[in-house]
Amino acid sequence: MSLDAVLAKIDETLPEAMDRLFGLLRIPSISTDPAYRPDCAKAADWLAEELSDLGLDAAARPTPGHPMVVGHGGGGDRHFLFYGHYDVQPVDPLNLWHRDPFDPAIEDTPAGRVIRGRGASDDKGQLMTFIEACRAWKAVHGALPCRLTVFLEGEEESGSPSLIPFMTENSGELTAEIALICDTSMVSPGIPSVASQLRGMLKDEFTIHGPNIDLHSGHYGGPGLNPLREMARIVASFHDAETGRVAVEGFYDGVHEVPPELLRQWENSGFDEKTYLNSVGYTVPHGEKGYSALEQQWARPTLEFNGMWGGYQGVGSKTVIPSEAHCKITCRLVGDMDPDRLREKIRAHVEARLSIDATVTWDQDLEGSPAAVMNISRPEFEAARKALSDEWDREAVFVGMGGSIPIAGYFKEILGMDAMLIGFANDDDAIHSPNEKYDVQSFHKGIRSWARVLSALS
Amino acid sequence: MSLDAVLAKIDETLPEAMDRLFGLLRIPSISTDPAYRPDCAKAADWLAEELSDLGLDAAARPTPGHPMVVGHGGGGDRHFLFYGHYDVQPVDPLNLWHRDPFDPAIEDTPAGRVIRGRGASDDKGQLMTFIEACRAWKAVHGALPCRLTVFLEGEEESGSPSLIPFMTENSGELTAEIALICDTSMVSPGIPSVASQLRGMLKDEFTIHGPNIDLHSGHYGGPGLNPLREMARIVASFHDAETGRVAVEGFYDGVHEVPPELLRQWENSGFDEKTYLNSVGYTVPHGEKGYSALEQQWARPTLEFNGMWGGYQGVGSKTVIPSEAHCKITCRLVGDMDPDRLREKIRAHVEARLSIDATVTWDQDLEGSPAAVMNISRPEFEAARKALSDEWDREAVFVGMGGSIPIAGYFKEILGMDAMLIGFANDDDAIHSPNEKYDVQSFHKGIRSWARVLSALS
């Protein structure tokens, strides 16, 4: 079947494709905040409609959380599953956005034209590259290039509570030869990248309790235990200031060094440490001593503080000793680190360091996910790598990824299906941050890339 | 002039006095938050009206901040100034109040009847004890017992920015023999107390800046410097974990040990360490090792964290490395500690500990106030002590105070006038906290106490 006609179709219908993406970006589908539950449902319905347009038998399927969108279509011997997620991160701090996060627009920047808005890159823009590739193929050939199952989730940014039960209950219809996932970035702008490994994730949150009411710092300043000071002391104890290593006992159990040959491949992948650091205001890597920024990001575990708060945050001053202090934690896991065992170690680390009269409560009990290593020896990986190299006129590379996409591990665990992660985001997309963007080039060539990959695999 | 008739009048008109206090408590005069500026003006006008009722020549006088209420009246040889403040602390966290903070009510509690509401104790209830004493005196004798100047401030809870300029410009009319201040508590319930010393105050606030935008903890977790972790490390460095002492270089310059005889007096003042600690959920004092809770509160300096925040505080989790972290600090000063020099030492402590790629900005520049030691050798102190002992059937005591009332020092500095601090609050009044209260007994016997003190001084 002619690929060139499909690529030409993609070029000529790009404006309409962009309009469709904008329609999806306008829906504030923030999954972590219950206030946006109706918007998540709306995004799911919007996508089910979109897939039906392509002739897939598609529906938004209810779960205890946000709906799953599942569509089946196409024909032939080969059967692939595509996964993406339609939910997005919260938008705070809103005042740092230079436009409404849910009123997307094309903006001209020194680095080129970008699509601005929450979810433009993570993951609405990316998942639409695949759907638009299918749309163009259908338009040219009247049918999809192969048998396809499209599986879109609405809880990826909030721990995917419904994912495992849904996959288990529907394993039959969700099992294909391999899963294609578009939720990752390119190692460097213009360098097409296929993930060879992903970090896992562990989330937790604790509250330190001190006095039974907020206290006046005149009446109790001195004798009074201050939960903020307690939290700071405990948070500071999580890392060794000298080495930058996490100081939780047994934290590094299951962490392996990167094989020298893979490390060499990574170092030649075009990752530009200077740009990576300087673009966000760093001059040096701040992780574990003895590892490059690339290794710190792709191959080393972390214990990160995503939020801390307590006491008075308003204008001016308040002479209070607060009764509580709060801390949100996430860990990135590598190798064989076990999220459940690690959670216990972290909680034990905190509990062992509490002062008399201080107590701790754990406020989240979120699903952890282990790290994932891809089976890059499968022929689909090499076929995809070639197709990507053709589109981008640059040798595509296998790279590590600092992010966590638990789904890759779940596909293997629950469906016995390998996953191949191909994404077109860039590190400066500000995903999870104010002013998120997706390069118009990523969207356009991303669509073209999927058309080539589907052609190569079918 | 008959005192008994005045005391009888106070007893019989207590319900009306309570109603007047409730009128004042209903005005949300939160001085630190610009949103409540009109309410502060309203409270000032309300009090000017009240003083005019007593025949004082009174007015709410404008300042660049909130108004000062000044009233002059009465006659005779003796001239005293009374000081109080009509502004109150913010009410957050609002969800911990069991009623609207500005809808006051009498509540029956196991410990007796209380007036519940923000400002009931600090300082609206306390200042009204003096005004009601004057009202009863006027009702019985047709005139005030002596020449009086009443001076009420609306910025005490927010650093008193307008106070020094106002006192300087109006020093003539504000200078009396001695200043009477009702903004302190009793060392123990039912034990009338006169302050022999107060701690000073220093306020500051800083922001740690890291990356130039919020970052994704997958893309930058590891190599990325996290301002929350930076803040925790620096906050933890402010105290020696072993001794509980503040670790800022030169922090204790100007701090003196309490003279043994005064310490003995304090220890016999009825201060109940067990109740003081247990009532708020502590089992041991958490301040400097080697000092009793009483010394830690009255005679030792502190560096306290009143608010810390940064990153995501919402429902669920957000995998972000925030670009900023914030911390509000207050210090309680004793002896000859110099607030201005101390501010420099604290800022130097932070700046010396910043990592590469981290910067700090200082977000407040609030007036500091040195500690104050009272001139208890003046005859007015002994006269007042006797009058209080009569009212409470219990020897009144000279005690230290953990709080800071800068005004006492300013009266001395600017007007050359000593101050005498007499208050009827209790440590469990939850001032600055949710569910603030003032004992009905404190209000009632407080009014009677001022009638006795005025009688004794006039």
TrEMBL record, chains A, B:
The family database entries (InterPro entries) matched by this protein are listed as: Cyt/Met_Dipeptidase, Peptidase_M20, Peptidase_M20_dimer
Tell me which Gene Ontology terms the entry assigns under biological process.
proteolysis
What are the protein's UniProt keywords? Hydrolase, Metal-binding, Protease
Give the top-level enzyme category.
hydrolase
Q: Where is the Peptidase M20 dimerisation domain?
A: 206-354
Q: Which GO terms describe its molecular function?
A: metal ion binding; peptidase activity; succinyl-diaminopimelate desuccinylase activity
EC number annotated for this UniProt entry: 3.5.1.18
Q: Does the keyword Protease apply?
A: yes
Q: Which Gene3D superfamilies match?
A: 3.30.70.360, Zn peptidases (3.40.630.10)
Please name the PANTHER family in this protein's record.
BETA-ALA-HIS DIPEPTIDASE, SUCCINYL-DIAMINOPIMELATE DESUCCINYLASE
Protein's UniProt name: Succinyl-diaminopimelate desuccinylase
